[in-house]
Amino acid sequence: MANSQPNPGALSGVRIYAQLKPDEAALARLLLLQAGAREAAPGTRLVSPDRLHLTLIHFGKADEAYSRLSAVTGTGPKAYREALADYLKDTTAALPDTDFQLTPTYLSAFGSHGSTLALELRSTPALEALHAELYAVLLEFLSACGIADPAGYAAGDPALCFAAQLRPHISLLHGFRGFHGFADDAAPRVDPAPLRLQVTPVLYRV
Fold it and tell me: What is the pTM of this model?
């Protein structure tokens, strides 16, 4: 988390997003499910334990966001730094202190090519309300950067195009092409007991 104004040039390759992370018990259950899924889908790649998470809002790489925004609006580094600092502050302030308990539902082939195996989770009114607040903060950031139609810009931006929709899921495997050699009903069973997920700060991570 950062409270000072970031320098776009100093954030090369750094990603910003808000997320929920599993607590210790939930992580243990996810790792068991992940191991079973990989056994049924050989050749896939595990998402590392420290990266198992539910994304609330994915902002993307700060320097690339600046390049795209400045190309459209002419926003300078100072204005971008100020807007980004406000975005980080307001996003962090919107995150609650309480955890979420979300019910797992099923495994799905996620992404535009279905190459990520994800655990889908049932949303809740509280989670939907949090997402709506975070999305509103994102639109305010885009407006502060000079975007006249923030929602339209977000819909066409490669990093923000899914920000308006909340589809709660946790990615487990990459390189997924189906459960080869197994019937669908031989895929790992999803335990419907709720998972406890904890709010984390907005992250800077290479």
Answer: 0.89
